[in-house]
Amino acid sequence: MLKLSTVSAPHATGRLASRLRQPIVDRVEGQAKPLVRWGVGHAVPRMVMRNAARRGDLQGRLIATSPGAYPEELLDLFAEVRASGPVVKGGFSYMTVSHALVKEVLNSNDFRTGIVAGSGILGRLGAWAATDVFNPVEPPSLLVTEPPDHTRYRKLVTRVFSVKAVERLRGRVEEIAAGLLDDLAAEGARTGGRVDLVERYCGLLPVTVISEILGVPTELREWMLELGGGAASSLDMGLGWRRFREVEASLEEFDGWLTDHLERLRTEPGDDLLSQLVAAREDGRGLDQRELLATAGLVFAAGFETTVNLLGNGIARLRDHPDQFALLRERPELWPNAVDEILRVDPPVLLTGRVAARNTEVAGVRIGEGAIVTTVLAAANRDPEVFAEPDVFDIARENAREHVSFSSGRHYCLGASLARMEGEVGLRALFDRFPDLALLPGRTRRPTRILRGYETLPASLGRDARA
């Protein structure tokens, strides 16, 4: 026995020490991993971009522009890029503002979405610090997956967003808009007609619509808008530490709620899209938990985030261009085209990017495997080779619909038809109800670089046509 105890005691002591040490290790890792994620995903790229901008690099200057800058503030920079050639080598990637080349890259099988972590120290650190929490720019999100997985995920949700399905929703969207406008009128009566249109209308309309489609309780809509606003910066590069932690907190909170909500739908399914996703099978295979969270999360967030911007941008454009607003009043059949012109001149998304899947060429420029090409959607929408007088806001423009604000190719926006319809219904209903609506001083843009829109849009409602 003595011999046994003298042999086993050190092992027992080692196991005890290991158990005591593990919580400390877990705590240290829990604190270190967010720092590593921020460093690899934001601090290092921000340093690279700032240095490039100081050297006059065009892409560095684009990224370094003030978050939320108005499109007109970027026009000179777009012109410089255009004058520098069809494809420009930037400090972080290649870049194009050509409408034709943007579509070529977005439609090409030589390019894929998502940036694969490298094998170097940054790549290994990023892999070690990765989290399973839903993030729209991490696999298996539809934004950054490719066939066959992308095809499988998209097929499960496409039918809900088809043109025919969206038109069937039009009547319900009109009802929701009317109800929100009643609430807006009531608030205006309490405040002397002063309201914030983003907070009380532009945000609530699309989040209510997508909540009904997905079976999310409408009483959560304002909470969802708050989370969406917090998570919108996840698409940006170069976030500061505090903003990065706010974004991660929003994503974690949304991930936790969505996990619980999907679990409830497993036992109490409804006839909504999320219930269908939980039960869906393609060739006998359904979505696993991570795929389900990523697909449901992206559809929900994308279902209102960009439409909030479309509505706010549209209100501002029409009130800032009274001649175009007057033309709409005379020719209401132009509303669908007006929405596309709004999307063209003030798109909800500034740019997107692709990674070369193999060595290839674009406009004679050799692009090596793994290189990134940034496609600047907002600049392509003002390409003078496609749009006559591209910087003029013209709701009667014959080819307004040729904009690339919804991207192109296999990653073309799933909710494009829904966004167009909500934009048309939402804007027309607002101005029909309050034809004298006037914007007040103090409007602010969202503090994001990729998603573009208004954070606040104070207005005076004016006369209520229904009264």
UniProtKB/TrEMBL annotation:
Keywords carried by this UniProt record: Heme, Iron, Metal-binding, Monooxygenase, Oxidoreductase
Keyword Metal-binding: yes
Family annotation (CDD domains): CYP164-like (cd20625)
Membership in a protein family: Belongs to the cytochrome P450 family.
PANTHER family: BIOTIN BIOSYNTHESIS CYTOCHROME P450, P450, PUTATIVE (EUROFUNG)-RELATED
Protein's recorded name: Cytochrome P450
Organism whose genome encodes this protein: Nocardioides eburneus
Source species taxonomy: Bacteria, Bacillati, Actinomycetota, Actinomycetes, Propionibacteriales
